[in-house]
Amino acid sequence: MKQELLTKIRRELHQIPELGFKEYKTQQYLLDYINQLPQEALTVETWRTGIFVKVKGNVGQKTIGYRADIDGLPLTEETGYDFQSTHDGRMHACGHDFHMTIALGALTRLAQNPADDDVIFLFQPAEEGPGGAEPMLQSEAMDRHRPDVIFGLHVAPELPVGSVSSKPGLLFANTSELFIDFKGVGGHAAFPHLTHDMVVTASAFVSHLQQIVARRVDPLDSAVITIGKIEAGTVQNIIAQAARLEGTIRTLSPEAMERVKGEIEKVARGYEIANDCDIHIDYGANYHQVFNDAEQVQRFEQLVQETEYQYREANMAMTGEDFGYMVKEIPGFMFWLGVDSEAGLHQSTLKPKEEALAVGVHIVEKTLREL
Ligand SMILES: CC(=O)N[C@@H](CCC[C@H](N)C(=O)O)C(=O)O
Questions:
Q1: Whose C-alpha lies nearest to ligand 1, atom 11?
Q2: b or e along 329-359 (b: 16 or more beta carbons within 10 Å of the residue's beta carbon)?
Q3: What separation in Å is there between the alpha carbon of 149 and the centre of ligand 1?
Q4: Which part of the chain is CATH 3.30.70.360?
Q5: Three-state DSSP class for 208?
Q6: In this structure, which residue's CA is closest to atom 4 in ligand 1?
Q7: Atom number in ligand 1 closest to CA 320
Q8: Which residues form the active site (predicted)?
């Protein structure tokens, strides 16, 4: 598939980022594209805002799955692109526009010339939250299309174009969203002693969370707690009666995740007593770690080495991926695709290099044909 067409698709998708399970325009765009491909070998089935596309193989001994996530992030784009997001406060800042384009590129090649094995493409909603992989995996549609092996990719801004990277075993962390609501007594800014200030309480709590990481988790079993959003108060001279923290917990083991949650709850009980307030904790979406199948990764490395591209051994990362649920049930793996951007994932200035699209299509197609 020509670079110009890949670039066109990527730019069109880049302009319509949508949040998890609201990917209506994205789904329609994908369906319109898929419908103009040769249909002889294809079976297409929608699932919520996602899509399953099966390409019947010439022999069909086994089924290989390829998953591409399709949602965007709640972030205002600042790339200065002339094909910038047309959706206010939404951006493809995690490369899912790349993931979808590469999937369409590989699908095009297979629709024109099917592989020996059956191939199933999963266009999956809601990776950034609340999590589409687990319900997609449990769906009836998945019973009809369940692959024997599955893989997926993620763009890597820090790697050069032409390189890919993976590793056997643990690649991505266990994650849990974290929402904490504080309710106390507000009042006049001049009489703090008559109130229980939720700005002061919530700020102290944010700092205390870092103590949990530093002093309650084995340093050899890393954890991260990030609070990405704080909301509190109404105006500068009223002491806030409510505050809300929104964040995420990352750990390298499911056990450490349980430990961190237990510690957060203990601290919350202490803060309720010390600050005369109510604290409510909600863990939102939780993602299982991505644990790559060693045999599949070894085969993937061989396949990449047969190309002009470079394979590098990856390190574990504290990123999360609901694809972890898929490889928990189906042997498979995820790999990083180098896209060489100065700005990183989840930044408003992320600019992955479009030459990486063709690299992705080549490697995904080869893997689908030869894994
Ligand atoms: C690859 C990537 O960036 N994934 C996201 C997954 C987010 C999961 C969930 N919303 C959370 O924040 O815990 C990531 O932030 O790692």
A1: 177
A2: ebebbbbbbbbbbeeebebeebebbbebbbb
A3: 24
A4: 174-286
A5: helix
A6: 320
A7: 16
A8: 69, 128
* Contact 71 CB / ligand 1 (< 6 Å): no
Atom 3 (ligand 1) nearest CA:
319
Q: Residue for token digits 């002061």?
A: 200
Q: Is the pLDDT of residue 1 over 90?
A: no
What ipTM did this prediction achieve? 0.96
Tell me the per-residue pLDDT of 87-146, one tens digit each, with 9 for 90 and over.
Answer: 999 999 999 999 999 999 999 999 999 999 999 999 999 999 999 999 999 999 999 999
Q: Is residue 175 within 6 Å of ligand 1 at its C-beta?
A: yes
> Does ligand 1 lie within 6 Å of residue 69's CB atom?
no
Cα dihedral 168, 173, 63, 361, rounded to 10, equals -80
Catalytic residues: 69, 128
Which CATH architecture group holds 174-286? 2-Layer Sandwich (3.30)
The CATH code for residues 3-172+290-370 is 3.40.630.10
| Distance from C-alpha of 125 to C-alpha of 301, rounded to nearest angstrom | 28
Ligand 1 contacts CB of residue 19 (under 6 A): no
Name the residue among 67, 65, 75 with its Cα closest to residue 50: 67
Pairing of the two strands 332-338 and 149-156? parallel
